[in-house]
Amino acid sequence: MASSAIWNTSGSGGPPPVRIEVDEPVILGKWVYYAGVPIITTILWFVWDYVLKTLLLRRWYEKQGINFVDNCYAVVGAELQVTKLQEENKSHDWLYTDKPTNLYGTLRGLTLQLYTTNAKLCSELVGKTGKQVDRNTPALHSVGRLSPSAIPFQSMHKLRFKDRKANLTKSTRDNKRLYEIVERQANHALDKFSVKSESGQISIDARDLLEYWTRCTSGEFVWGQQNIEGRYLTVEQVDGVVRTLPFMDVLNMTFTELRFYSSRFWNRVCFPLASLPLTKEARRLSKNINILRDICTEMMNNPLEGTVASLLQEMNDGQGMPDVYSLDDLITATFAGLDAVKSAVMGCIYHMLNPDHAYWRQAILEEMNKLEDLPGDMDVKVMQAPILTAFMWESLRFEPPGSLINNAAVKDFELNYQGQTYKIKAGTRIVSSIHALHQHEESWREIAPDMSPLTEFDPNRFLKYGDKLLGSSCFMPFGKGPRRCPGQAAGALMVKTFLKVFVEREFKNCKIVTPEGQSKDASRFHVYSKATYNLVFDE
């Protein structure tokens, strides 16, 4: 409390003035005013800009006929439903596969997000990429922490995007070298994991097998076997124990942990929370990231001839790009395909070993035997094999590894569909839901009315109409347009080569055994899934 003096001066000639002390909260009152006003103003601004404004924007879209997910609440959006889907190893995109409109909405944390699900709207959205829409993704706060300046996380107008993407694509086009690595590593992995049990059978966890294979293949292709062989890193694992592990094990482990950490409920509600050092786990991940970046810098400074690392640096250096661009793009090239390729192969083998699809397994084996007798390089023949290719595409249609086109409106624009004009406001996150698109009957029927229902697994649709489907807006497991995955060709070759090796190994009575408590469903193999199965066969 502060005090002030009040003098009683009742008049001249009277008794001397008396000093009266009166306490007043002057100083405290000032502090309450100066601190309270900004705090209250900030709270009001936050409520307006991130809550009321978002709800008004939702109402704006609902008036245009855009439906929102049921039970979609302010701030938390539909993330409670997303959590339930994740517990079933399903992607959040399955929220939008059976809704009655072509644009669906949800609240994702403090932002509003729309999803396009039919081919025409997806195509129109892709056409606006780099103009009215551009990169704005929560991935920057998760796996982007490993390579924050890499092109997948940048605007198309920054950091020489086009030149960098072209160089990265060119550096991964050595299909002959990649095929040799994939085939050798696939055989090595299958031998390593084919351990006979006491029952006389062999049981392999498909997830463990394919994680090992993708680590070995990607590390050798990008950095070279001599560069990663014998290179161990000492890091703290999720159980708090410090261990010394191979470089690619640490990279894959960190990449996976970052993705699942960012997918926790509150990190999904507010994306930047995933990158803040608020938890012990976040701080542990940051330490491991710094260790990985240091070792990648060392390897980049000592590239092996013919590797992706050497080719990319040579092109980037020739165009005067800073080393940090090469470093981040190489780190991304190393980990980007790990789970995507693993998930794609898991889905393909799951369908291949389905007793109802025995015809396709035999057809692929016969096709591979014929290719062996034909002249030419095997990598070219495998990439062009029609039955194997159709089987892979149908598996990716059934379960794409993930939704890839993740952008936001940078200015107001319009989307037009069948006479309906959707007015999109700047700041709205708007993406293509690949899972929903691949199940959108109306879009696929426009290409071929006699096509089998999309609920059926049928590679014939790609054998008959592959020329129309590939490159169309009905089917884009690797994305489309300027944001399409630069490693699409390399990823497809990796998947098909592993399948070739697998069918040629002639595992006797090979079958799939799903772990107890896990759904027996082919739509569970994507990058956010923990689903697995065992390959069980006779020796």
UniProtKB/TrEMBL annotation:
Keywords: Heme, Iron, Membrane, Metal-binding, Monooxygenase, Oxidoreductase, Transmembrane, Transmembrane helix
Residue intervals passing through the bilayer: 31-52
Chain residues that bind heme: 485
Signal peptide: none
Listed cofactors: heme
GO molecular function terms attached to this record: heme binding; iron ion binding; monooxygenase activity; oxidoreductase activity, acting on paired donors, with incorporation or reduction of molecular oxygen
Superkingdom field: Eukaryota
Family according to the record: Belongs to the cytochrome P450 family.
Name used for this protein in its record: Cytochrome P450
Species this chain originates from: Apiosordaria backusii
